[in-house]
Structure formats: structure tokens, C-alpha cells
Amino acid sequence: MMKRFLLFSACAVLASAQSPAGDAKHGKELFLTYSCYSCHSFDGHGGAGARLVPMPLNQAGFTSFVRNAGRMPSYSSKVLSDAQLGDIYAYIKSLPTSPDAKNIPLIQELLKEK
Amino acid sequence: MWPLIKNEDWSLVSWQGFINSWPNRLWNFDKHYQYIGGQGAGGMGYGAPAAVGAALANRKHGRLSVSIQTDGDLNYAPGVLWTAAHHRIPLLTVMHNNRGYHQEVMFVEEQATLHNRGADRAHIGTKLWDPNIDYAKMAQAYGMHGEGPITDPNDLVPALKRGLEIVKKGEPAMIDVVTQPR
Q1: Burial, A25: exposed, middle or buried (Cβ in 10 Å; 0-12, 13-18, 19+)?
Q2: Do B123 and A35 touch (CB under 8 A)?
Q3: pLDDT tens digit string along B8-41?
Q4: Do B120 and A33 touch (CB under 8 A)?
Q5: Which of B84, B66, B81, B77 is CA-nearest to residue B163?
Q6: Contact residues for A22 (Cβ-Cβ < 8 A; gap 6+)
Q7: Which of A30, A33, A35 should be substituted to probe chain B, the one whose Cβ sees the most B Cβ atoms within 10 Å?
Q8: Do residues B97 and B178 lie in contact, with contact meaning Cβ atoms separated by under 8 Å?
């Protein structure tokens, strides 16, 4: 199991180094067309789906996850090519992160009450 | 909304299933009437009439009824807004206006990706835009106070306060708030 994980990680790192930079503008179009926003929100900050920003995976890891997702539908290469996923990845990477909850007074107030 | 109602005798008269249970995460529920629950099967169209019915039941107790109303749900039976206006049922309806049936999108995407086709067409039949529905005008047309669509968070609290003022006087009010999908 550990060997497989290491192999996967090594492949991901190598693939990441070789992956061409995606087109964030086209990625935005795909993000909307393929309804990614429907669960991950327009800003990628999550909702019913996972938080995408900041993106913890490299491009190869992202592609691998989308191909073999668990709870969300898996998108095969017949549906979205590697290049298209690269564009979506570039768009997600371009999205700004949300402010730290510690800096939002209303959230702090609610947490204190809880 | 919580800071505005927490010191009132409030009651949430809408289901939280389509809004990720945010009130349950952030509000303190310690009385049985503070939440009416849901329809039992995730069906659409139950929310608005149920909210008005529960608000009617709450009226004689002097409770402040608030509903976080999903937009797709309201379009099944919007006539209930007239019922609320006609019978002077105090109810603050906050439209969770995500402009679509986003719960459904995931199921469509699931089938489309399973069959490797049509994953780019999940919007068909699930989106409520082009044109956007003007819920403030809808509320006004049925005879109640309506405001929105609110897209700037800075406009939200003043609008909620205006709505609550009207509800406390015994009338229904609706604040249309544009939200993230889910």
C-alpha cells in the first residue's frame, strides 16, 4: 500500500513538473459549463462540495482525483480531457482565498456563543 | 440574521436541508418550536406553504417567525404569499436565491458522467436564470413588502432590519438575497 502511495506521489510530482500551465480563462468557462460551481461555489470556497481554495493538490493529483472521485461524480477523459482539467486547475489556482475566520468579528461572536 | 433575532422569541419555519443546515450550525435551538423540521422526503414545493402555516400557528403565541426560503421551492406554490398577505401573517421570508435547483444538478452530473455524455448540459431544467426572477416584485405583487435582490453583503443587515420591523407590526415581508449555489 505504502509502495503504491509512494509510486503515485512520485508520478504526480513528475507529471506536475511536466504539465503545461492551463488557461485559467478557459478554465472558468469549463468550471461554469460543467457545473463545478454548483457544489463548490462560484468562488471555490465550498458548500455541499469540498473547499477548493486554497487547492492542496498539484495538477496531477487534481486530475487523478477528478478521474476517480469518491462522493462526487468521476469525470473520465471522454468527458473532460487532461488539458481541460489543466485549465480548470489553473482557474481554481487563480481564485483568491477567503479571509481568516479569526478576522471576521461576526463569526468570532457566534463561536463564543456556541 | 442570528444577531437580529437571538433575543426574540423566534421560530425557524423552514427546512434546512437545501441550505446545508447553516442555522443548525450557527444558531442555538433550545425550544421545541424553534424548528419545524422538513417534509420528510426532500420534496419540492413544501417549504413556502409550510412556513406560512407554521407562522400562522406561531402568531397567537407572539413568536417571531423567520423562513429561509429556497427559490426553486417557492415557484411551486407562490400563491401562498397572497395567503400570508391576506391573513396578515407575520413572517420574515429571506429568499436563499441561488437561481437554480442545485440539489438536482449533482444527480444529473452523476448520470451524465456515468454514461460519458451530456455533463456539460446539466444546467438544462435546473437553472433559474435568463431571465432572473425578481422576488421582491413577486412579493409586492402578492401584496407584501419585498426588497432585493441583495448582492452586496453590506446591504443585507439594513434590509433584514427593515423586514423584521414590518413583521413585528404583524405583516409578512420578503428579502431577496442572492447566494452561492449550496
Answers
A1: exposed
A2: yes
A3: 999 999 999 888 888 998 899 999 999 999 988 8
A4: yes
A5: B66
A6: A59, A83, A86, A87, A88, A89, A90, A91
A7: A35
A8: yes
Give the position of cell 419545524: B36
Find the CB nearest B20 among A48, A78, A110: A48
Chain B 140-159, residues with CB within 8 Å of chain A CB atoms? none
> Which residue matches cell numbers 468579528?
A105
Q: What is the CATH number that goes with domain B2-102+132-178?
A: 3.40.50.970
Domains of chain A as residue ranges with CATH: 2-96 (1.10.760.10)
Residue type, A61: G
ipTM > 0.90 (yes/no):
no
Of the candidates B177, B123, B127, B122, which has an alpha carbon nearest to the alpha carbon of residue B155? Answer: B177
